[in-house]
Amino acid sequence: MKRRLFVASSLASLGLSACGPIKDSLTNGPFRSVVFSAERLNQSVIGTHGMAREYTDADVDREFRLDSLDTPSDATYTGLLKSGFRDYRLVIDGLAERPQKLTLAELRAAGDRTQITRHDCVEGWSAIVKWRGVPLATVVAMAQPKPAARYVIFHCFDRDQNGQPYYESLGLHQAAHPQTVLALDLNDKPIDPAHGAPVRLHVATQLGYKSAKWVSRIELVASLAGTFGGTGGYWEDQGYEWYAGI
Amino acid sequence: MVGERVYRHGVTARTAHWLWALALLVLVMSGLQVFNADPYLDASDKSDPHKRVLGFTAAMQNGEPIGMTTIFGVTFNTTHFLGYTDDGMGAESERAFPAWVTFPGTQDLADGRRWHFFFAWALFVAFVAYLISAALRGTLREMILRPSDLPKLVPMQLYYLRLRRDPPPHGTYNPLQKVAYTVVLFVLFPLLIITGLALSPGVDAAFPWLTVILGGRQFARTWHFTLMALLLVYFATHLILVLTTGMWNNIRSMITGWYTLKEHDGVGP
């Protein structure tokens, strides 16, 4: 019996030491695309249904954790910030019958929705935050998407250390969800620069990386393929799922 | 009866068994990869350090980095094993679980998530297919604990502890095996799937009561991790018993289906 256990434990330790190379060949091998196909299954089974739970003021985290690229420090953004975003215009263009350029005042006037929802980060943590802004559906409708439009791309002011801009995207169905909002206020105050001033997206039914900060332009497109890495987002281009409902 | 060869495991059961073994290995390792991205467990809905159950961090002590594990407020130095560990690139860094137990080995949340979800589907499909097949073949009945097994639990445990000469008479599986299989099939597997789904914001929007009954989303994460740990306890026990109660006979039966009856082995429910 002891000999058997010795053989078994020797095999086990041999297996562990061989694990590194085995793991490398698995993660980069042809099986990779099979593994990645689970995303389509997740999206078709879970999708975007129902309404995210809404909370009360008592549940709100007053200090909302920062976990994103750094606050933009380029001349365009700092210039806008200094003038209190007086010259900020949210551009909605692409496959639109009526492209828009909206001031913050026009955006506020377009719609008003307040929601206290849980923000779940892909890393694992959750926070409860109060958002106030305009339902994205309202703004998209103002631009009158052409029939060919299937996605909305969010272009943002922030860039990583390599100069790669942040961007995100949603399908029109996800964009139409009532809890998908272009937020202007965070916890009863205009969003501060670090949290995405003056306009950030909040997608209550998906993970936090979909909720792009510092949105400058919304582009209606037929396909995600032509933009940056082609997978529909900054993190998506680095291997994260486009469907972040899981 | 002793020495007789019986066909014990059908092809669906054997396929499901080995698929579970593979899927659970990848799920545990990729799960630890995902966990490493935010190595804290809270008994709450939103993240709350005041309701922390388990946490891993690294810190400096006398100029040396150390890894620390905090369970219910009690901190242990776990340098090299937990908190400050092998990063899979030939060095050590702040990392809850070391590279050799995570998949992928190096820090890679995106890939870890994708492998986790793929094998979660594989496990789910194999689990449902097995339950249907085993119910139709009647083998599920042999595994489920029934009231008449309850008085046999203590005698069976005494037999394992060598305080009793013979085990109580039983069918294909002894009463303690039935407890283990019943708990794994009808408690651990379903709860692992449910608590995992509760971590998905999309699922939570469709079924908002799910996180409520589990005590919140972070609590669901804590349950998911705890159930994984319980499954590992089952796995260790399973492995020891396979190795010590006729290893080749046991392993062969899960490959070919044919099992040679030993002394005390019964057949049927």
Write the topology of this structure.
The complex is a heterodimer of chains A (246) and B (269).
Chain A: H1 2-28, H2 31-36, H3 38-45, H4 75-82, E1 90-94, E2 100-102, H5 104-110, E3 113-120, E4 126-135, H6 136-143, E5 151-159, E6 165-171, H7 172-175, E7 180-186, E8 189-190, E9 200-203, E10 215-221
Parallel strand pairs in A: 1-10
Antiparallel strand pairs in A: 1-2, 3-4, 4-7, 5-6, 5-10, 7-8, 7-9
Chain B: E1 5-7, H1 11-36, E2 40-42, E3 52-61, E4 64-71, E5 74-77, E6 84-86, E7 92-94, H2 109-137, H3 139-143, H4 153-160, H5 175-197, H6 201-206, H7 209-214, H8 217-244, H9 247-256, E8 258-260
Antiparallel strand pairs in B: 1-8, 2-3, 3-4, 4-5, 6-7
Task: Write up what this structure looks like.
The complex is a heterodimer of chains A (246) and B (269). Chain A has 246 residues and is of the alpha+beta class. Chain A folds into two domains: 1-36; 51-238, Sulfite Oxidase, Chain A, domain 2 (Alpha-Beta Complex). Chain A is 28% helix and 25% strand. Chain A has seven helices and ten strands. Chain A is globular, with a radius of gyration of 22 Å. The N and C termini of chain A lie far apart (46 Å). The model of chain A has no long low-confidence stretch (mean pLDDT 93). Chain B is α+β, with helices and mostly antiparallel strands. Chain B has two domains: 5-39 and 102-260, Fumarate Reductase Cytochrome B subunit (Up-down Bundle); 40-96, no CATH class. Chain B is 52% helix and 14% strand. Chain B has helices at residues 11-36, 109-137, 139-143, 153-160, 175-197, 201-206, 209-214, 217-244, 247-256, and strands at 5-7, 40-42, 52-61, 64-71, 74-77, 84-86, 92-94, 258-260. Chain B has a four-stranded antiparallel beta sheet with strand order 2-3-4-5. Chain B has a two-stranded antiparallel sheet with strand order 1-8. In chain B, a hairpin with a 2-residue loop joins strand 4 and strand 5. The interface between A and B is large, with 52 and 43 residues.
